[in-house]
Amino acid sequence: MNEIYPPFIQAYDLSKHYTLGQINVKALDNVNLQINEGEMVIILGPSGSGKSTLINMIGGIDSPDHGKIIINGNELQTLTSKELTIFRRKYVGFVFQFYSLIPTLTALENVVLAAELVELKGKELRKRGMDVLNAVGLRGRENSYPSQLSGGERQRVALARALAKHPQIILVDEPTGQLDEETGIQMIELIKETAKLFNSTVLMVTHDKSLIKYADQVIEMKSGRILVKNFE
């Protein structure tokens, strides 16, 4: 297998269709984009616009019916299932809207599970977990369970878990959807700050136009197509 190197990201003519009953849904319709390493990219659009489908393809979770995705010269569609698993494990961190934490594990235990994927062990594993928890402002909360944390703290644990691998790509799906406005702003600022610290490229899906001021690049989508880039 050829070594897979972390991004720049390019997508060409991406199309994806789903069949719901007798209805053919265009999740993506001839999408093209280019993202530079280290950028904070916000992908805007209403529900059903294709935003989540797009980041799932960039993360190697889904594949297009047509078109290609190239990450630092490596075309994802040419990789085997095993190679895609290695790509996700080594280079991609995911932050989900509903946190997806394991309730029976502490904050630190949730985080080190991700670090184990890059084969850290023992003291090195714990140190990585503590480092990323400290980076997201959770010093002293490492032994707390998700039920003992606020919504904002749970989202911080989810971010720390994504950062534990030192990923080159962080994919974030509606990070403020379950948070109040003030906590949501704090989370966006934290994502931008920690991504810069780890030199990660961030693709963030949202419907909230107030967040565009944090982005290096803004992409607006509707009905599976890109409408606007870098608008004010």
Q: Can you describe this structure?
A:
This protein is an alpha/beta fold and 232 residues long. It has a single domain, classed as Rossmann fold (3-Layer(aba) Sandwich), CATH 3.40.50.300. The protein has six helices and ten strands, in the order βββαββαβαααβαβββ. The protein has helices at 51-58, 81-91, 107-116, 122-135, 151-163, 181-197; strands spanning 9-20, 23-35, 40-44, 66-71, 74-75, 92-95, 169-173, 201-206, 217-222, 225-229. The protein has a six-stranded mixed β-sheet, sandwiched between helices. It has a four-stranded antiparallel β-sheet with strand order 2-1-4-5, with helices on one face. A hairpin with a 2-residue loop joins strand 4 and strand 5 (74-75). Helix 3 (107-116) crosses helix 4 (122-135), helix 3 (107-116) runs parallel beside helix 5 (151-163) and helix 5 (151-163) packs parallel to helix 6. The longest helix is centred in the last third of the chain and has 17 residues, at 181-197. The chain is globular, with a radius of gyration of 17 Å. The termini are far apart.
State the shape: globular
Radius of gyration: 17 Å
Strand order of the largest sheet: 6-7-8-3-9-10
Taken in chain order, the helices and strands follow as: EEEHEEHEHHHEHEEE
Strand-residue proportion: 25-35%
**CATH topology-level name:** Rossmann fold
Low-pLDDT parts are none
Helix count equals 6
Q: Could you give me the name of the CATH homologous superfamily?
A: P-loop containing nucleotide triphosphate hydrolases
Give the helix/strand class.
alpha/beta
Helix content: 25-40%
How many domain modules?
1
CATH architecture: 3-Layer(aba) Sandwich
Q: Please, what is the average pLDDT? A: 86
| Number of beta strands | 10
- Major sheet: 6 strands, mixed
Give the end-to-end Cα distance, rounded to a whole number of Å: 43 Å
CATH class: Alpha Beta
